[in-house]
User: Fold these one by one.
Assistant:
Number 1:
Amino acid sequence: MKKYIYFLMIPFLLGSCTSDSEFLDREPTNILTQDQAFGSPDIVLSVLANLYNRYYDFGTVEDWSSLAQFNVAFWSEAGRYGYFQNGGYGYGDWGTWDYGYIREMNLFLERLELSEALDPSDKARFAAEGRFLRASYYFTLVKRMGGVPLILESETYDFSGDATYLQHPRETEAAIYDFILNEADAILADLPADVNTKSRASKGAVLAMKARAALYAGSIAKYGASTPQVSLPGGEVGIPTSKADAYYDIALTAAQAIINGDVGNYSLYEKKPDLSDNFASIFYDKSNNPEAIFVEDYKLQSGKVHSFTIANQPRFGAEEEEGGRINPALSLVQSFETLDGQYKAFETTTTSGDPVFYESPQDIFDGRDARLKGTVIVPGSSFKGRPVDIWAGVQLADGSIVSGDSRGQEKELPGSTGQVQVVGFDGPIDGLEFTAQTGFYIRKYQDPKAGSGQRGTQSDVWFIRYRYAEVLLNAAEAAFELDQPAVAAGYLNQVRSRAGIMTDLTATDITFDRIVHERFVEFAFEGLHFFDLKRWRIAHQVLDGTPMDASTITQNIGDATKRLTQPFGLWPYKYYNPGDPNDGDYLYKIVKPNRVTGADRFQFGNYYSEIGQDILNNNPLIVRNPNQ
Amino acid sequence: MKIRHYLYLSALALIFASCEIDNYDEPESFFTGRIVYNGEPIEVGAREVRFQLFQPGFGNLAPLDVHLDTDGSFSGRFFDGDYKLKFLNGQGPFKAYEVNEQQGDTIFISIRGNTEMDFEVLPYYMLNSSQFSASGSTITGSANYTQVITDADARTIEFARLYINDTQFVSNNGDYNLGFSDLEVNTGRVSGNTTLPDNYDKDYIFARIGVKIDGVEDLLFCPVQKLDL
């Protein structure tokens, strides 16, 4: 009886196979076709979001060390001490060659062009954004590699066995910069002039990029003349000096368009009465921030968060037993001017060699550029309402020092009974990771919100790629190079008075060193310092491989080529001498963290990163970068 | 015997069996020599200057970097075969000779067994008759120099320095010196002195003079000399 079932099944089996010839021909449920993807603005935006997400930053809050390179800070993490123990950099460092990204941007633009379902104004905006991202990546390429092949359409291999038609030579460095500047002009009209569009391209972002690119090109043309060996005969590296003024002109015009409010009401962030708090807020205040122009944004509980605060918060009493990694170096900290605009080293000893005593640890840092305390957490200041505990030990009357090798260690001092604390809970303890081994922590980009230091929550502080202060300083530099020092002084003074500096600069004060200095302190830990060193061709002087010493570090502050091959520290000590008027006061010493043993040397071959041998093999038309 | 034991045994067998079959012999030929001018070696800093060897005929062409030792010598172990030797532009205080128009400065060499070869190059300057002496904590040094390239490519001396270190590696690289001083550059001669670092506790020191040629990154050195203190 049971077997009848088989007979019953036969017609079903036969029927199901033949009756529907398109049975297997189904729409995929997990892939969008090109028509679907480019059929609705929402989906195009998410394609574009992928491209935005792959934007290349040299420094980013997602990788704390990328913001603190080149000895502006010591890295208080045992696994990273090696960075301060070697003598220089590899030729291949900082290289990038992501033509896969370029291809996808080209494909995006080509497919977008074919789409007929989109509203023309949407379409124009999307295309402009795609071209903005493509120009941004070519800017990244030209900064790091020099001139590169300029590929503006997707290319396909025809499997003929001969790939030579896909091989393109490098363009000149100037040609890539010209491409970026021309793209900026071409897409400007299609983008919104909206101050509140910050994580997508806007008119402001395009002009800010244009100003920066033109400024970089101009300075390479001008200062490249001082290092003729950093150039190639074909112009793939190096820009003729004669082009400098034209580029500076473009930079100044583009920057002034933003400053004059042509593309939206951008201005310096000036919301808080305390100028240091105000400066720090630029980097975390995301509501109506008029200074940020183009940012990488993050959002809590969305998966797109970062752990910059976890990595760098003052470790003692933090929300997680972690932090303290970036320790700003003395060379940076002492570069912040006094409020009347003077360069001044910290007074640690009197002329006769005796220590200078300060009643509270913060006193030595008073009366300085407000950006100091907005950028750096100094001893005696606080983060998230909790004071940091940074002091290296106790100095006794005879000059000897009692200190500990664990955080907040207690010992008995001579002439006292019972144990007392002899070193801060935040260090500095030489060689102990996560303590403030230079005596400082970083403040910039740290998130003051509760939970930002917890691994389960993390931080959603944005990373600012272009901000108004940079536009001002770019304009100032271009104006200075174009022999308009009064204009330059005006822009510099805006930035400086926001930082509380009361003495204005006049036209005669504006020198190359001034421009270099202002960018050094304003943009510390923002990922711009490296390209400044490169384009002015001073990297091989600043990083010359010669060790530094405590006696010369305090000299020539504000000098553009001041040596910075090693990070130094400034350690506070408590003075213990009961009965002495200075008992309980603080004194300071300049120290070199003992994990710093190497002195960095930047070679001519480091100015432009090495092009990988695999790339050279695949394309014999590519010429190598100089001095490698 | 469980299955596991057979597994171990067969793994063991595989380990021993796999060695012989699929590996190349290791490179066996030493390629040694010096970079010289008129037979005199050109002294450079440790691991500062390199040239590259290319071996065509095996698919992708990847350079084999060969670094010069401080005394201008080099040594490497290679497979027998034909190689192309290329000095890199901007590497070293010298220029490579052009072999001929078509070949440029690329040198064709063949390595068959241990090979020793010196390569003539054209340095900007040469240093000779260097002299050092130590008295107390002062190290005095001098050397004579001659300008070799005097045509349109001639370059001036940017500075000359006396470097000291406690190992035989002495150069301008911060890892390879304990201190240095600028020397006086006179016609055909550099001279001057430097002082030992404070609390120097060894009874010897190595000294060396380096000359920086304008626009050339790698310094030209004189031979290292060990001084007893």
Number 2:
Amino acid sequence: MTTTALEHELKEMIIETLELEDVTPDDIDRDEPLFVEGLGLDSIDALELGLALQKRYGITLESEAESSRQHFANLKSLAALVESRRQK
Amino acid sequence: MTDLYLQDWRAWTPHRETAGECRLDTREKPAGAAVPSMLRRRLNLLGRAVCDMLATLDSGADSIVLHASRHGDGERTLEMLYGLNDGEPLSPARFGLSVHNATVGVYSIASGNRRSQQAVAASGGEWAALMAEARGYLADGQPSVIIVFSDQPVPRRFAAYAPESSSAAVVLRLGRDPNPGARRLSETSVELELETATLQPLDIIDWLMDRRRVVACPLSRRSWQFPAVRP
């Protein structure tokens, strides 16, 4: 799977999991922040997204780790995380 | 006892006709336009209706808000419990919105209203509880308070154990003073069989639209009506 295809898959997962009613995959820029600014997600979304990554890709994140903040910075970094740590 | 006036109201239910009453919204899907989309996405239809009506009656975002619902979001809560029983992880967003004060909490965030809020469940005595709480705040010096009464059908798996209820919500602004158009509310003691049906939001809507004269709570043995002649 190319990175672009994975990014698209992640966009759809974000929209579906976080029930983003008025957002389409095209609205999510791979370089824009996902949280607070950019897409405007909040801390509950971060927990929800962590759960979705665990369910779909078998990735468990350490909630307190600074690295989690970096993984969740934008779609590009999220795709890099999934690519390197996915179990399924 | 403190005089009580109904200053204004709004209601939502798809189970009644408007009959020309503009304060009743009968749309299947309320807009939820009062709440930004990033907050609105987590509200169910009832929550969206309540937030829109609150925004209308609490335009200054400075009213005390009392919310009662017998079952709350029973469907969401029950599905989470079944999920836990099956060993599934809990969705943080669903958990956050399953609590009894979720809707008024979202309203508070969206509107910036930081006044007191209460969320009440009273085993069928919700209306009486709301009136008692409202009277307390008014007697304490508040010029007005907003009360919300909402409910939705009990989850199918539990429907046999509770009276049938329909999706409906009603929001009223009650005050100590009769502003223009206000109706005085009288409350009296009444003898009722305990088996008498408990009040639901649809009953209050019918009462507000003068389709019934009196509403009564068998648990508190109180009844409410609008006296025909204003003093």
Number 3:
Amino acid sequence: MPHFFSNKRLILLMVGIIILVILVGLTMREREQATIPEQIMRDSVGVVQSVFQRPAYFVRDIYDDFVNILNVHEENERLKGQLNDYAMLRSEVDGLREENDSLTSLYEGMESLSSFDTIPALVIDRQPDRWTETIGINRGTQHGVETDMAVITEEGLIGRVQYTSAFTSQVQLLSDGERTNRVSAKVSSEEGDPAVGFIEGWDVDQDLLVLQKVDSENELEPGQFVSTSGLGGLFPADLPIGEIVDVQVDEYGLTQNAYIEPSADFFHLNHVLVIERNVDNIEGIQEEFLQQEEEEDESEGSDD
Amino acid sequence: MRYLLPAFVAFFFIIEGTWFQVFFPPSTEQDLHWVPRFAFVTVILISIYRGSRSGIFYGMGLGLFQDVVYSTVIGIYTFSYALVGYMAGLIFVQSNQDHLSYCSLLLWLWRR
């Protein structure tokens, strides 16, 4: 057996291992923000990645269009069927919108918790070995993206912004099973209050999201829709997440787990929207509430 | 010409995260997921043909980028790629003309 390492190399190897341990120890914790050198590296790689990615999407789109043309007839039939329901829905929506307008006008200057602006972004990298965990997008702090903003596609919620740098940022997907990655979600039911639970990761066997910690008194059924509750404080309310496929009682029998088919297509992410919550409004609403409470307190005090 | 090799590694590194996932996205139907390691194989080849020293530096550089750009913990890929880069270079030292040994190594890597 030949000597793989001479003395000098052995020392170098030891120093290498020590540096490795220090670096891993420093970076393993959940960090608020990536360091400046990291941001610079990500930005410069990100620029090259977007240059590569755009023609790739272009070619892919052409391919997809070609496949779509073959399916046009089937889709047409299906859409005609749906069109019949459209007229009914339309009139119902008009009615609801009028009602909503009249009700919101009563509360002057108050916008709902679900109001937001969006920043469109392009997915520039996604590694197959971290497929369910993170993606990179080509929008950063310069475009107004901040950590913990919600990221959606047209169909539904996909994740939150984990790290930002000047021109790129990293998005943690809903399907990442990391323990700190939780989203407060609600299941809307026709009667009564919505059931509230947490989206906690991805079931690998069934390729479905898992909604956990739902009170066992709530009756869940396959086919119910799941959306964000807005109670977590980070995400606006009523962003669609998916549809329940299966419900099971958890291992202790106290709460229920629901398996959710995500409404966003996690396998073809290319254009996403970053949600900029209207924070001013939220603060305004809070202040308004506080003022009202103070006034009520004063009026109660004067009564005594 | 000096920058040709680094450019080559960088090109494969970029491809791994961008083109590969657009044209060969993993799907739920397959049990097998393809994970591209083009840049890593290139580093091993460089190390075999040019010796352990370049193997370490290319491995460390590539590993650092892999850590920073695609993951959150720094140091794992940096260290392991540098180590494997060094190890691959040993084949060069011991069997200068023996193509069989590194061909078998490469085949093993491709099959993974």
